[in-house]
Amino acid sequence: MKRIILALLVLTCAGCGREYYEWPSDGPDAKPTPVYRVNTERPLVNPPPAIRQENWVSNGSGSCVHATLITLLRWQGRYEMANHWRKTYGSGETADDLALKMEREGIRYAYTAGEDDVDFLEWACSTRRGCGITCKGGVHMVALVHLDDKWACLLDDNATDHYSWVPRERFLAEWKASNSWAVAVIYAPAAPLTQ
Predict the structure, then answer these.
(1) 113-121 CB contacts, 8 Å cutoff, 24+ apart
(2) pLDDT for res 160
(3) Alpha-carbon separation of residue 78 from 39, 55, 105 (angstroms)
(4) CB of 75 within 8 A of CB of 190?
(5) Bridge partners of 153?
(6) Hey, is 7 helix, strand or coil?
(7) Top-level CATH class of 43-185?
(8) What's the CA gap between 38 and 120, in Å, rounded?
(9) Distance between CA 46 and CA 77 in Å, rounded?
(10) Which residue of 46, 92, 115, 166 sits 20 to 30 Å from the alpha carbon of 194, by its own alpha carbon?
(11) Could you tell me if 154 and 166 are in contact, meaning their C-beta atoms sit under 8 angstroms apart?
């Protein structure tokens, strides 16, 4: 009887949640398992595919910092600024140079660099803003769209069709080894799904 009630509950709530895949902890050869969560939005920052900016080549180098920033601006409803940024900026970037450009453009932002400030990452994700973070030794930037006590979720501007879930400690070690730069734009994020 309990199984019938549970099955009816899952069918009744089928449109309320999202399916995602979770990697088991029993070895590298284990297969991901679909896990269904009712009324749980994961990742917390989940820009639809239509507003995700892919990386492009500008002046012979990638524009991952700018692509990530554009996605985060769009996620927070700043479409005009995102389009302006795409037309105006490209190529590689440093934390200080990006800060100067954002100030010049009047963008509200916060960032940390070289401080290993995990609280900043948690704040950016818990407020549903997300942030751009460095990885691969500091030569690439992706969007951190979720961080909890077990998992980090990344949206790579080189592969915007899917999210990558990484164990929290492995993610933090990579980020800290990559100059621990993180940047967030500070506007109103999209509203969460209703609970």
Answers:
(1) 113/179, 113/180, 113/181, 113/182, 114/179, 114/180, 114/181, 115/180, 116/176, 116/180, 117/180, 117/182, 118/172, 120/182, 120/184, 121/147, 121/175, 121/182
(2) 96
(3) 27, 19, 13
(4) yes
(5) 146, 165
(6) helix
(7) alpha beta
(8) 28
(9) 13
(10) 166
(11) yes
Question: What is the DSSP annotation of 87-133?
Answer: HH--S---HHHHHHHHHHHT--EEEE-SS--HHHHHHHHHTT--EEE
Q: Is the per-residue pLDDT at 186 higher than 80?
A: yes
Q: Which residue has the tokens 């190529």?
A: 91
Strands 182-185 and 131-135: antiparallel
Q: Where are the domains of the chain?
A: 1-40, 43-185
Contact at 8 Å (CB) between 188 and 102? no
pLDDT digits (tens, 9 = 90+) for 27-73: 445 555 555 444 466 899 999 999 999 999 877 778 999 999 999 99
Choice between 189 and 143, residue whose per-residue pLDDT is larger? 143
Count CA atoms within 13 Å of residue 170 on its CB side. 9
SS3 38: coil
> For the whole model, what pTM was predicted?
0.78
Q: What is the mean pLDDT of residues 114-132?
A: 97
The pLDDT value recorded for residue 76 is 95
Q: Do the beta carbons of residue 73 and residue 145 sit within 8 Å? A: no
Per-residue pLDDT at 12: 35
